[in-house]
Design a protein that fits this description.
By secondary structure, the protein is an all-alpha fold. It has 15 helices and no strands. The longest helix is centred in the middle third of the chain and has 32 residues.
């Protein structure tokens, strides 16, 4: 089957548009890979916070503040983008914001706590809003029966973008260490590399992706905010009609809390528990991205055959196994195995959740529903890492107990997923469209 199979796309959608859409995942994945997962998080704890006991908690609270702002803003921004047919415009603004704030991270050195906090809050906010907007394009591009595979195309290409950015950064770090240069030199350069890849790769998105939605006739600029609030109130008033979407949101909030821990704290866990050095951690995350790309791409086709709900449950059991391996690991070998399993599950579970949200979203409220989806995942991005940070702070740095607690989020997600009826949720969305 050819890549970007035209049979998977809605009428009038060209394959180059899907390539442009998927290229945004390629562009922004370097941000999460280098800034949040592999490099800057450990740098924040070890250098910016100077190894203080409160360093991990400060990192998680910084992410929590950013994600709280995302939770408040994205439903409104999504509703506004629907009303104005302005998803592409909103995406351009958030891209510029994330790139600029990532450049600001290059100026962070030892003790520059408040500059680091401000730049992370802004960059993560812009990244998350951009994620919501690109997700809202998905049902415009793909047929409903092909949402899984098209979502998987984006996720898998995104991991290659993360590997490119991480690979360039790793190459520079190895050279810098060979020259005897400290982390305060090579980490800032890694931030500049990340910002450059993000900016350049996103140009393909803005050149190829079209805005298929049309502005609503009464969506005047002056009344757009009031209209957005009115649509959100309408969504919540009719929430009973979308009860499967609600169950999915609760499920996503649970399992994404666990995934957020892995993204934000894997490098810290590797360094604090197993003594990984910076280059070892970057190599580990590079391997995770290879596994995640393979999982997202292959899994996308499989989930369209077996069903999104069953496929998502399969990946959540994989996450439970990953946390058990990480807790038990006392040497690098088992932890590397856990990392590969995490990679396979990461692309798969995020792709499956994004596709299932598209199944439950009424066609004329895509950005709004994906705004609610982002609200749930940002809530998770607060709950998971802050829980981890509080456990380590309260136990004097017991990271093993913290990762064990993380496994409970995946078990909760499995329990909530049992309440989701895909056929019923899809019928509700179609009834609204009619």
């Amino acid at each position: 089957m050819p890549l970007f199979d035209p049979q998977a796309l809605n009428p009038g959608v060209r394959r180059r548009e899907v390539l442009g859409w998927a290229m945004y995942d390629f562009a922004n994945s370097g941000y999460t890979t280098v800034v949040l997962t592999a490099v800057f998080n450990a740098y924040f704890v070890g250098v910016v916070a100077d190894g203080a006991d409160w360093g991990t908690l400060a990192w998680t609270l910084t992410l929590a503040l950013s994600n709280a702002l995302v939770m408040m803003a994205t439903p409104l921004l999504g509703a506004w983008a629907d009303a104005r047919a302005a998803k592409k415009l909103l995406l351009a603004g958030t891209t510029l914001g994330c790139v600029a704030a990532t450049v600001a991270l290059a100026g962070v050195g030892r003790g520059d706590l408040w500059l680091a906090v401000a730049a992370i809050v802004v960059s993560n906010f812009c990244y998350a809003v951009g994620e919501q907007v690109t997700a809202a394009f998905l049902p415009e591009l793909a047929r409903r029966e092909a949402l899984g595979r098209v979502s998987g195309w984006g996720w898998s290409l995104g991991y290659f973008g993360g590997m490119l950015t991480l690979g360039l950064s790793l190459g520079y770090v190895l050279w810098a260490q060979g020259q005897g240069l400290p982390a305060t030199h090579f980490v800032p350069v890694s931030m500049l590399i990340t910002a450059a890849v993000y900016a350049l790769a996103s140009l393909a998105t803005f050149a190829l992706l079209r805005e298929h939605a049309r502005a609503q006739p009464d969506a005047r600029l002056r009344g757009a905010t009031a209209q957005a609030f009115a649509r959100l109130r309408q969504t919540w008033r009719e929430a009973g009609r979308y009860r499967d979407f609600q169950w999915l949101l609760a499920c996503a909030a649970a399992y994404q809390a666990g995934i957020s821990v892995v993204i934000a704290l894997a490098a810290i866990y590797a360094a604090e528990v197993l003594g990984f050095q910076q280059t070892q951690t970057m190599a580990l995350i590079f391997l995770v991205n290879i596994a995640a790309a393979a999982g997202a791409f292959g899994f996308g086709y499989w989930q369209d055959r077996v069903g999104h709900r069953r496929a998502l449950a399969f990946t959540l059991w994989g996450w439970v196994g990953m946390t058990a391996l990480a807790v038990a690991a006392t040497t690098p070998g088992p932890f590397w195995a856990a990392a590969v399993l995490a990679g396979l599950c990461m692309g798969s579970s995020q792709s499956a959740g994004r596709a299932l949200a598209g199944v439950f979203a009424p066609p004329d409220q895509l950005a709004e529903f994906y705004g609610l989806w982002t609200f749930a995942t940002r809530l998770a991005a607060i709950a998971g890492p802050v829980t981890y940070g509080l456990v380590t702070w309260a136990t004097g740095g017991n990271h093993r107990l913290a990762i064990a607690v993380t496994g409970l989020f995946f078990l909760l997600g499995l329990a909530l997923l049992r309440q989701v009826d895909v056929a019923r949720g899809q019928q509700a969305a179609q009834a609204q469209a009619g």
